Amino acid sequence: MTFIPRKPEGYTTSRAQGDHSVTPRLRDVAFNRHSYNDGRHISPLDNGTVQIGDDGINVLLVQGLNPEFKQVVSMATRATIGLDLREPASMEDTRDWEEMLQGGLQTALESQVVVFAVSGASRTATHQIVRTRKAAFHQSSQRASWLGAQPEMRIPESVWNSTDEVREKWIKALYAAHEAYRAACDADVSYQDARFILPEGTTNYIMMEYPLREFMNVFAYRGCYMFQWEINSIMHACRDILVSKYDFLEPYIKISCEKTKGALDANERRAAGDTYMDYTSDGNMAHHCTFQGWESVEGQCPLAWARESNRSFRSQHHAIGRGGA
Questions:
Q1: Cβ(45)–Cβ(100) under 8 Å?
Q2: Which residue from 33, 70, 148, 196 has the fewest beta carbons nearer than 10 Å?
Q3: Which one is catalytic: 123, 154, 195, 222?
């Protein structure tokens, strides 16, 4: 079936053009605007730049692990047998800290909080990032701050590499949106109301605070290459910067599929004489795909075990990109 969208002939408004009555509860009176701005509430991303794909995304590790990380985790691992706090060894011994990273009761990992700062992520990406419930976020406000005359904007590679007509229409729409935003702000409409016209691709700043345990869980999920490319790029950048500072974390912060053992379609592929690159030294195929979405993984995920026949979940009712369920 071919999807043919209805071409709109125009828009209608819920109120007549001449109706300028004001609803008391919706009054725009006490919020930041040009006439109230003290000069400190101005976005640094007013640079007139159109970022393509994941260009220009910057990630910084603001807060790393506590220096006593291994000691705390080791003590928590052995807490069930009790610790003699009079003995120095009970405070210094870190022999078994790895056990908590490997699994089991990982509650002590919740006491270790890592903080990342991300600049240049689109509102599309940050609206996905903040869905994590066991984390805290601090984000630049379109309500309190002036975004500028030409706020930085992000455009997907798929759009940029499309036709000249598509690119031209996107840039024109971007210019028109910014022109409308400037006009509203210059008329002293509050920033919280003027922001309604800004595109979802407008970039911004966000700080992300994760208990280490939650970041491990988030990366296992969001690090999957099947998820939206921008949030995927941000999550991998966070992992890379964290592991580069704490290399002992490398084996434990993995995509969920990288934690699996064996391929689900190994027997069929062996029977077919397959010599795929994801065989391990003992002749078994390394992993299987754990993606739980409706999309086909083949051609999208770069990992060798991303095959439709090797998935642990496939929807029986919905399918995208694989010819129906």
A1: no
A2: 196
A3: 222
How does the average pLDDT of the chain come out, rounded?
Answer: 90
CA separation for the pair 312, 325 (Å, rounded): 15
CA 22 from chain centre, in angstroms, equals: 39
Nearest of 270, 300, 263 to residue 285 by alpha carbon:
263
Each residue's pLDDT tens digit, 259-284: 998 889 888 887 887 766 566 665 56
**Per the structure block, which two tokens stand in for 139?**
């984000």
**According to CATH, what is the number of the domain 29-65+112-254?**
3.30.1360.170
Beta bridge partners of 203: 122
Who's near 134: CB < 8 A, 6+ residues apart? 210, 211, 214
Q: Is residue 222 flagged as an active site residue?
A: yes
Tokens of 10: 């125009």
Nearest to 212 by CA among 192, 188, 233, 238: 238
The model's pLDDT over 175-232, given as tens digits with 9 standing for 90+, comes to: 999 999 999 999 999 999 999 999 999 999 999 999 999 999 999 999 999 999 999 9
Within 10 Å of residue 64's Cβ, how many Cβ atoms?
A: 16
Question: Residue 221: which H helix or E strand, with range?
Answer: helix 212-222
Give me the residue spans of the domains in the chain: 29-65+112-254, 259-325
